[in-house]
Every structure is written in structure tokens, then in C-alpha cells.
Design a protein that fits this description.
6-stranded mixed β-sheet, two-stranded antiparallel sheet, 39% helix, 22% strand, globular
């Protein structure tokens, strides 16, 4: 009986979190659809470890427009296709000659137990991630959850170690302000538009 109540309690928590996600990102979507992209809030800074064992923070990427994405590499559904979308954004930015110096991509895992440096190196290799501009970062689980929450991204872990999270790509300008987000689940997500948004912000 206690196990059943506990299981139902977790489901209720997930529903509440998902409703909070809908409210938060509905507001962000309305902001993001403004003619001129407004500032939602200051993006939280952080220090996490990259694939070479070096500390990287948002402040280290000042002067670059950034996409920030929270994920885990063993995700059974949304994280892989969204990471593929990010790889296409990378390709577009490379073709325009602005990747690495004016624009960057930051992928932050919230599952450091399974996402070891070796695992992330292998994962990033599948998407031909260019390390000069695409950073795969990890830290302890509590820190990753806290950073995601400060960005407005909700992540919940159940007792079996499964994660529930909202699948969004966040756009941060070169001054460190959160400007808008893109729905990673959108099958019609326009890679060219994302690249153009990043380039436009890099010129502000």
C-alpha cells in the first residue's frame, strides 16, 4: 500500500512539474515571438567540467551567442533527435563562418553517473560536434538540476533513475541574457532561423 501511495505521489509531482513547465514556457514563447527579441532574464552562470577535464562557465563564453540544452545521452526519446537538430545548427553556423568565435552550443547533462567523460566523448562523436564551439559539460547531479531549474528547465528523477524533463533549447545572448527558447519536440523546427537568430544577436 505504501509503495502504491509513493508511486502515485510521484506521478502527482510529475504532473505538477509539467504544468509548471507549460506555464513558464508559454510565457517565454510569447516573449520569444515579439518582433524584437526581448530579454527574459539574466542567464545563471555556472562552472562545469568539459570533456578535457577543464572548468567552463557561461562567463567564459561571454561575447558569443549561445544555445544551451539540458539532456542525458541514454535518453530513450527526445534528447537524441534534438541533439541531431543542434548538429544541423552547428553545420549552418560553420557554413556561415561564425561558429566558435561568435556563436557556441552548450550541452549540459543532468545524468553524470552514466554520462561519464568517455560516454560523452563517444556521444558527441556521433554528432560530429566541433569542440571549438560545442561544449559538452557535466558536474554532479544536484548541481546540474539546480542550474537547469535556474534556467527555468524542470527536471525530475524517479526512483528507477528515469528522468522527466522539458525538451527546450535556450538562446542566450553574448551579454549573458536569456532571450528566447525553441521547442525541441517541434518537428518543423527551422534550423536556418535558429542560426539567423544567433547571428543577429551576435551583432547587437
Amino acid at each position: 500500500m505504501n509503495a502504491t501511495l509513493q508511486k502515485n505521489g510521484f506521478k502527482i509531482v510529475v504532473i505538477i512539474v509539467l504544468l509548471a513547465m507549460i506555464g513558464t514556457f508559454s510565457y517565454m514563447l510569447m516573449k520569444g515571438n515579439d518582433t524584437k527579441m526581448g530579454v527574459i532574464k539574466k542567464a545563471p552562470d555556472f562552472k562545469l567540467t568539459n570533456l578535457d577535464g577543464k572548468q567552463v562557465g557561461l562567463s567564459d563564453l561571454a561575447g558569443k551567442t549561445k544555445l544551451v540544452y539540458f539532456f542525458y545521452s541514454t535518453c530513450p526519446d527526445v534528447c537524441l533527435p534534438t541533439t541531431y537538430t543542434l548538429s544541423k545548427v552547428q553545420d549552418t553556423l560553420v557554413s556561415k563562418g561564425v561558429f566558435g568565435d561568435k556563436t557556441a552550443i552548450v550541452s549540459i547533462t543532468f545524468d553524470p553517473t552514466r554520462d561519464t567523460p568517455e560516454q560523452l566523448k563517444d556521444f558527441s562523436g556521433h554528432y560530429h560536434a566541433d569542440p571549438k564551439g560545442w561544449y559538452f559539460l557535466r558536474g554532479d547531479e544536484a548541481t546540474a538540476f539546480d542550474i537547469a531549474n535556474k534556467f527555468g528547465v524542470m527536471v525530475v528523477k524517479d526512483q528507477q533513475g528515469n528522468f522527466t524533463h522539458n525538451n527546450v533549447i535556450l538562446l542566450v545572448d553574448k551579454k549573458g541574457d536569456l532571450r528566447t527558447y525553441y521547442n525541441g519536440n517541434d518537428a518543423d523546427l527551422d534550423v536556418e532561423k535558429i542560426a539567423q537568430d544567433m547571428i543577429a544577436l551576435s551583432k547587437e
